[in-house]
Design brief:
Length: 446
Amino acid sequence: MNKYVQEVIEKVKRENPGETEFHNTVKEVLTSIAPVLDKNPQFQKVALLERLVEPERTIMFRVPWIDDKGNVQINKGYRVQFNSAIGPYKGGLRFHPSVNLSIMKFLGFEQIFKNSLTTLPIGGGKGGSDFNPKGKSDTEIMHFCQSFMTELFRHIGQDTDVPAGDIGVGGREIGYLYGQYKRLRNSYEAGVLTGKGLTYGGSLARTEATGYGLLYFTSMYLKDNGMDYKGKTVVISGSGNVATYAIEKAQEFGAKVVACSDSNGYVYDPEGLDLDLVKEIKEVRRGRIKEYAEAKSSATYTEGCKGIWTIKCDIALPCATQQELDLEAAKTLIANGVKLIGEGANMPCTLEAIEYIQANNVLFAPAKAANAGGVATSALEMAQNSMRYSWSFEKVDNKLKDIMCSIYTASKEAAKEYGHEGDLLVGCNIVGFLKVANAMMAQGIV
Ligand code: NDP
Ligand code: 2IT
C-alpha cells in the first residue's frame, strides 16, 4: 500500500489518541484513495493529506440551560469546521448523549467527501452536543437550542458554515435554533441553516431527501445488477428521519418492509410495516417503537437492536447510527441470502463487516454516496434561499434523483478507472477526494 497514506494514518492515530471513530473513517477513506496517491505524487509535496485530516477549526463550548425544575444543566457544544475548499462548511448537528469530539470529527471528515460527491459547492463540517433530548419537555428543548445558538451564532453564517439536522435534531430544533440566530443577528439570513420549516425558508422534499435518495441510489445499483425492489423483503433499522422516508419509498417501489427499530429494540411485522402507524408513534407522539407491536397484532417486539439483522431479508438498510451492523450481523444476513446492504446512516457497518460483505460479492452501497441525498437537498435549500424563491416538490425531487444518479455513475466509473471495478466504496471516496484535493491544490497552502 502507498507509503504516504500509511504514514498519515499512523500520524492521525498517534496525534489523536482515543478517537476511535475518527481513526476508523480516516483509515477507510485514505486506504481507498491510495491508488490516486500512487498516480499523483504532487499531493504529497504540499502535505495535502496532513492538511486534509486536520480540521480547519474546532469550536468547543459550554451550553448552560435551566430545566423545568429550575436546576442548572451544563452540556458540551461542538462545531468542527473541517474543510472549506469547495464551499462553506456544511453538515448536521447531532444531539445525543454519546456525542464526543471523536464522533464529531468522524462525521465531519465523512461530510467533506460526501458533500463533494453531491457536485454542489459545499464544504464539510459537523456539530452537536451531548445533550439528551429524550424525555425533555418542549420548553426544555427550546431553552437548550437557544443557549446552544447563543454561542454558535458567532461562528456560522450563510457563506461561512451552514448547519442542519442529524440524530436528535429535526424540524422542531432547527426552528428554535433559527429563531435565536435571527434574533441575535437582527437579520433574516435564511440560508444559515437547512432543514427549516416550509413557512420560513425550508425546501420541499428536504424532510424526505435522505431516505428517498438512499432508495434512488440503491434501486439504480440493483437495476445495474438485474434486480429491483419489487416484491423484495426489506429490513430497515431506525425509525427516525432517514428510516421513515426510506420505508416510504421502498414501499412505493413495491418492496415489503418487515422491520424497523429504535434505540431500545425492534419490531418485526411479517405483513409489512404500517408506515402511518410508525409515523404516528415516532413523529407525532414521539413515542417508542414497541408501541407498534402493542397496536398491531401481526407484529412482535424484541428488546435490543442488534437482533434486527437476524431477520431474513433480500435488502438491508441500516438507517439508525454508526457501527450498528457488525461482522456477526453481516455473516447472518449473508447466510440468509441478502443481496444488497445500503448504508442510510453514517458508518453503520463496521470495517470488518464491510470487508466481509464485499468479499462475499453482496452489493454494498456506502454511506457517503448512498445517504448524500439529504445534504444535497440542503444545498438546494440554500440555492432557493439565495434566490428568495422556492421550487415545487417535483422539481426538488427530480434534482435529487439526478444527483443520486450522478453520484452512482461517477463512483462506478472511478472504481473501474482505478482498477477496483464494482467497488463503490473505493469509487465514491476517489471522486469525493479528487474534487476537494484539486480545489486545495489551486488555493495554495492554507
Ligand atoms: P433521527 O434522530 O431522526 O433518528 C435516529 C434513529 O436511530 C432513531 O430511531 C433512534 O432511536 C435510532 N438510534 C439513535 N441512536 C441509536 C443508537 N445508539 N442505537 C440504536 N439506535 C439508535 O436521526 P436521523 O434519521 O436523521 O439519522 C439517522 C442516521 O442517518 C445517522 O447516522 C445520521 O448521521 C444519518 N444521516 C442523517 C441525515 C439526515 O438528513 N437527517 C443525512 C445523512 C445521514 P431513538 O428514537 O430511540 O432515539
Ligand atoms: O449526515 C448528513 O449528511 C446530514 N446529517 C445532513 C447534513 C445537512 O447539512 O443536510
